[in-house]
Amino acid sequence: MFDNIEAVIFDLDGTVIDSMWMWEAIDVEYFARYNVPFTHDYQLAIEGMSFHETAVFFKEKFNFPDSIEKMKADWNDMAWHKYEYEVKPKPGVVDFLKKLKDKGIPCGIATSNSRELCMLCLNANDLTQYFSEIHTANEVAHGKPSPDIYLLVAEKLGVKPANCLVFEDVPAGIMAGKNAQMTVCAVEDDFSMESTEEKKRLADYYIRDYKEVF
């Protein structure tokens, strides 16, 4: 897996931290404000989208009265406490990050989440120290499965895409890494278990947890 690899880039939610369980609950609560039924299919539809793209998608599809900025602010507020106190690292990831740091392999974050929630969670779990670059899909033109965010992080790390290893938990993210011409390892997550075979097909590697890597 690490042949010719000079940097490792991680997705955040469902990959570094165990947080996917809470996002559908937040969407259900938000939709209920306006008496709009929510189905799991909507979660699949926004998979890989940036925070902003998700707000635009829901605004256009359901004509919510809130502005795009108000929608994003509300979602941030609804998630804030959970990201600070309830969301924890995935099993084995801290030891894995320590090993990468000991080996001098630089790491980055490429997330579709907001920067505020990303930094809140990383700081709360003392994970920021392991990442040289932390960037969100809001900084690029297109969210996952487009390669933009991964190419940005690779550029900031000063490493060619072909020498980057990506860890991702959902098909759109895996496709983003592959579209960036990077090696991709899929990570098992309860939220995406229904996509396990697709993830295995799309990725170069598949792990149940990080203890399998080293």
Task: Give me a quick take on this structure.
With 214 residues, the protein is α/β, with parallel strands linked by helices. It contains 9 helices and 8 strands.
Structure description:
The protein is 45% helix and 14% strand. It is α/β, with parallel strands linked by helices and 214 residues long. The strands form 2 sheets. It has a 6-stranded parallel beta sheet with strand order 5-4-1-6-7-8, with helices on both faces. It starts with 6 loop residues before the first strand and ends in a 7-residue tail after the last strand. The relative contact order is 0.19. The mean pLDDT is 94.
Name the beta content range.
Answer: 5-15%
Give Rg in angstroms.
17 Å
Order of helices and strands: EEHHHHEHEHEHEHEHE
Strand order across the biggest sheet?
5-4-1-6-7-8
Global outline: globular
Described by strand count, sense and barrel closure, the largest sheet is:
6 strands, parallel
Low-confidence stretches: none
* Quaternary class: single chain
Give the averaged pLDDT, no decimals. 94
Tally of DSSP helical segments: 9
Report the end-to-end length measured between terminal Cα atoms.
Answer: 10 Å
| Helical residues, percent | 40-55%
Strands, count: 8
Class derived from helix and strand content = alpha/beta
